[in-house]
Amino acid sequence: MDYKAILANCHNSSSEGVFKCPEDQLPLDYAKIYPDRDLETQVLGLSIRCIHSEEGCRWNGQLKQLQIHLNICAFNVIPCPNRCSTKLIRRDLPEHMQHDCPKRKVRCEFCGSDFTGEAYEDHQGSCPQESVYCENKCGARMMRRVLSQHSLAECPKRTQPCPYCNKEFVFDTIQSHQYQCPRYPITCPNQCGMANIAREDLNGHLKDSCSSALVLCPFKDSGCKHRCPKISMSRHLEENMRSHLSMMSSLVSRQRQEIQDLKKQVEELSVSSEGVLIWKISDYSRKVQEAKVRGNFESFSPVFYTHRYGYKLQVSAFLNGNGSGEGSYLSVYIRVLPGEYDNLLEWPFSYRVTFTLLDQSDPSLSKPQNITETFNPDPNWKNFQKPSGSRNSLDESTLGFGYPKFISHEDIRKRNYVRDNSIFLRASVEIPQKIIA
Ligand SMILES: [Zn+2]
Ligand SMILES: [Zn+2]
Ligand SMILES: [Zn+2]
Ligand SMILES: [Zn+2]
Ligand SMILES: [Zn+2]
Ligand SMILES: [Zn+2]
Ligand SMILES: [Zn+2]
User: Fold this and answer.
1) Which CATH number goes with the domain that contains 328?
2) Residues 6+ away with beta carbon under 8 Å from 262
3) Are residues 293 and 372 part of one domain?
4) Ligand 7 centroid vs 365 CA: distance in angstroms?
5) Are residues 242 and 284 in the same domain?
């Protein structure tokens, strides 16, 4: 039994008031317990290991030396001498005193002030004397106490709003921004006296409201080349009323000519060029009456071309007849008109022409009986020669070729040649395939 066990037993026994032998657990007679000097000397002389041997202390010696050893034993638990209320084994004390003890003494390396460990935790990272880099990464290094002044007012990398457009910019780019800032104030380059025009509004000012900007005379499309500041324009207009008017009138006549040319082109584009004309003469009975009254009255068809780039032709009809047919026949003629492509064509005009009066009877009820006449142009006929530029309407070369007695007024009533008060006259020209191609 070691010393520790004996002490523990004695201690337990006294609190219970019953004494038992720690060896055999038999009750002891109190009267027989007495101090035994010899035995004590003997016990205190026993050789023992340190009570911290299990934690690693290798000390051993006589029991009476133990207390002295414990005063220096690296494994003995002791309170921190700074009274920080920590208890720890002696071996860990230096580390604690140096780094962890909240009551240790620390001196700030920057400001030289003394702190307890606790207070230093707070001071660290905020010491006004510590030298730090600017957080904007401008590269400057300074004591912490001047940092905020630097960041607000001195740092070249601080952000700052542009005073004109209010957008945020890094301080050292704000100057170059202001060369482009859309709200940067500018003085009118025309010296009209306007200052403080925002850059983005300048064009609008020059265009709409600058009194010094040069403007073009509103009669520029009529040919006036005058330019002057906006405010002088009304005087120019007053002084040049006559010349502006004459410019206008010549513009109008130029435009009239252009319109005529365009009309002619549109007509050319709209004429048929397939070698076939189907000419509807509507309001037939009224037109026959009119022809009777006016005598020798000729109606004209739309013009048409024999083929693309071919001969330009026109059919005419005397609804009350002419020549040998006058008064009782429908007469039909065709004539060659001066065309756009005459210089490219063979002359005289020599292709077979067929006139047809169409029977408008319903083909499902009876076979249509069209009236047809075909002729080969007489090469000596004046109108089939190449038209000359100087042709006029009284010239015999304008006389069409055709049939004064195409159909009698009597026959035209027999079938459905007139239907819904309209007749259809067809003229077709047989052009050989090789010419069309
Ligand atoms: Zn020890
Ligand atoms: Zn401590
Ligand atoms: Zn400090
Ligand atoms: Zn900075
Ligand atoms: Zn700006
Ligand atoms: Zn201006
Ligand atoms: Zn003008």
Assistant:
1) 2.60.210.10
2) none
3) yes
4) 74
5) no
Residue 152 lies in a domain: no
Q: Is 73 exposed, middle or buried (0-12, 13-18, 19+ CB in 10 A)?
A: buried
CATH code (residue 15): 3.30.40
Q: Are residues 249 and 343 in the same domain?
A: no
Q: Is residue 372 part of a domain?
A: yes
| Structural domain harbouring 236 | 213-270
Distance from Cα 132 to the centre of ligand 3, integer Å = 13
| CA–centroid distance, residue 106 to ligand 3 (Å) | 10
The answer to whether 251 touches 273, Cβ cutoff 8 Å, is: no
Cα of 248 from ligand 7 centre, angstroms: 11
Is 430 or 393 the better-scoring residue by pLDDT? 430
Rounded to two decimals, the pTM is 0.43
Beta strand 131-133 pairing with 141-143: antiparallel
Report the b/e string of 233-262 with b at 16+ CB within 10 A: beebeeeeeeebeebeeeeeeeeeeeeeee
Per-residue pLDDT of 238-250, as tens digits, reads 999 999 999 999 9
Task: Give the integer Cα–Cα distance in Å for 10 and 17.
Answer: 10
Give percent of the chain above pLDDT 70. 93
Same domain, 258 and 292: no
Judge if 303 and 423 occupy the same domain: yes
Q: Is there a domain that residue 104 lies in? A: no
Angle at 383 between CA 311 and CA 430, to 5 degrees: 40
| C-alpha 291 to ligand 5 mean position (Å) | 86
Nearest ligand, measured from the Cα of 212: 6
Q: Give 183 Cα–ligand 6 centroid separation in angstroms.
A: 17
Q: How far apart are CA 352 and CA 331, in angstroms?
A: 19
Residue 15 confidence (pLDDT) above 70: no
Clarify whether residues 46 and 33 are in a common domain.
yes
**102 CA to centre of ligand 2 in angstroms:** 6
Ligand 5 center from residue 202 Cα (angstroms): 15
Condensed to tens digits (0 to 9), the pLDDT of residues 313-355 reads 999 999 999 999 999 999 999 999 998 889 999 999 999 999 9
Distance CA 159, CA 156 (A): 9
| Cα gap 98→104, rounded to integer Å | 7
Q: Which ligand is nearest to the CA of 109?
A: 3
The answer to whether 336 and 312 have CB atoms below 8 angstroms apart is yes
Q: Taking ligand 7, which is a single-atom ion, which protein residues have CB atoms under 5 Å away? A: 217, 219, 224, 226
Q: Which residues surround ligand 5, an ion (CB under 5 A)?
A: 162, 164-165, 181
